[in-house]
């Protein structure tokens, strides 16, 4: 029963986030499920994908075609840094208000910003193309977080690497249990429909 409840909560939480932000993220529930499946197929935990997508949708600030890349970078960085997925998403969301200032603030923390990226984003804003500036800033942050995640992986000790493997295994088991719960729910819905 718990597995079936958790299975329904995944898409219900996302739909609620969509409804509360009037669908600002621009990704439908169906696209959410498709994205969840495609990222799971390349090794991402469905639970973490769901958590990241829910946080992105709930932020009401992130939109556009880079949702998949932001989701992947968020999960990778969260897994390697130990930072909560919701907190990583907040950093991406901060770029939507003032991308130049947000980059400078994030640079104080991560020290990733090059002069050329800064000038590029600043010039896009000066040209009145804020959405393009946000996109460029998002790409810069995602690249920086991907690089940091790789460095953290390369510099991890044996125990950290082993623990990461254990966590990945447990996430896979959780995903399998949730998939089973979804299948049971689908069978129940199909039975209800056929009885009507």
Summed up, the helix count is: 9
Overall 3D form: globular
Order of helices and strands: HHHHHHHHH
Q: Estimate percent helicity.
A: over 70%
Q: Average pLDDT across residues?
A: 79
Rg, Cα atoms, Å: 19 Å
Instruction: List low-pLDDT spans.
Output: none
Characterize the biggest β-sheet: none
Give the DSSP E fraction (strand runs of 2 or more residues): under 5%
Report the span from N to C terminus: 24 Å
Q: Could you tell me the number of beta strands?
A: 0
From the helix content, strand content and strand pairing, which structural class follows?
A: mainly alpha
Write a compact overview of the structure shown:
This protein is an all-alpha fold and 196 residues long. It has helices at 2-20, 29-41, 46-59, 67-81, 85-94, 99-110, 115-126, 130-154, 158-195.
């Amino acid at each position: 029963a718990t597995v079936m409840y958790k299975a329904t909560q995944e898409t219900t939480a996302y739909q609620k986030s969509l409804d509360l932000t009037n669908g600002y993220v621009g990704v439908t529930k169906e696209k959410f499920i498709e994205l969840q499946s495609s990222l799971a197929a390349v090794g991402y935990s469905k639970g973490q994908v769901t958590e990241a997508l829910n946080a992105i949708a709930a932020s009401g600030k992130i939109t556009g075609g880079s949702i998949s890349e932001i989701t992947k970078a968020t999960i990778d960085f969260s897994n390697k840094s130990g930072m909560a997925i919701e907190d990583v998403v907040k950093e991406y969301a901060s770029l939507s208000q003032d991308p130049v200032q947000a980059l400078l603030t994030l640079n104080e923390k991560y020290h990733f910003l090059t002069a050329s990226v800064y000038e590029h984003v600043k010039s896009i804003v000066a040209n009145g193309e804020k959405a393009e500036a946000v996109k460029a800033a998002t790409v810069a942050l995602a690249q920086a977080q991907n690089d940091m995640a790789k460095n953290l992986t390369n510099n991890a000790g044996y125990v950290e690497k082993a623990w990461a493997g254990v966590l990945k295994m447990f996430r896979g088991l959780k995903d399998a249990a949730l998939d089973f719960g979804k299948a049971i729910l689908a069978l129940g819905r199909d039975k209800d429909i056929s009885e009507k």
